[in-house]
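Entry:
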Amino acid sequence: MKRVGIVGCGGIAHVHAEVLDHMGAIELAAFADIRPERAEEFAGRLGGKAYASLEAMLEKEKLDALHICTPHYLHVPMAIEALEKGLDVVMEKPPAISKEQQAQLREVLSKHPERQLGVSFQNRYNPGTQLMRRFLTEKTYGKVLGARAFVTWKRDIPYYIESGWRGTWKTEGGGVLINQSIHTLDLLRYLLGEPKSVEGRVVNHHLKEVIEVEDTAEAYIEFPDCHALFYATTAYCTDSPVVVEIVCENAVLRIEGDEVTVAENGKKPIKQEFPPLSHAGKNCWGASHQALIADFYQCLESGERFAIDFDEACRTLNLMLGIYESNESKVPALL
């Protein structure tokens, strides 16, 4: 039985807690939040104890693992604290908000090779993503010629103002790139391989007086055998399904939300829809936290390394940071 704690008891923590509560051999032992009433609500509903800080929780509780569901800038310092206490860690994205934070956490991980740290890029586990990856790995429709991806969502003033941390470089680390669309950048990497370079631009269109970060980004990403076009914004009128389209020699493959379409050359497109997954979160989170978290704990039991570890997640983060770097330098960033 593994004793698990959650730090940060906001929206996404409900998904982690629900998944853990339905898993065998897991005891949800403790919850921490700087707003104590939120931790108390979790403890009252799920059992365990509530704390007003991570420090207090780690001092009082003997835990095996920690789930970090806090604002972006706290991910690295909290992961370091947990790792140095001997815990394994699951953290929400992003794995860090800067290369400096990356270096700090990587140094600590090097001192604790027995510990595991997993990052929640849960959309890799979506059935549509897995089907697309199989098509590409097996070259079912020939080689890849190119790709495009779109994230067009809506985030208005209350989303930023009420959070207390979104919308600033210091605490969020960016805008639509690091928050909403990093998952889609990760899917491009997962499906197409390691990029060589990226050229991109970022801009704030609709909340200039509210946030200092971008609400819109575009990029041209060079992969070894093709290039991908990427566009993301939170200035749309609604949350539309994410689109990832990959053009192969003999077909166009398209993920749109939970649906996969295969349009073979000269044939009628075929759609494959997947039934809703249990423990589903909001559309922006996807519904595959259950699969990711179960895989992480299976790796702890078997001793295998979890696939989306810190190094793997930082490859996507560095692609994202490359867009910011290119925006500043006005030239492509090498990766």
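The first helix runs from residue 11 to 21.
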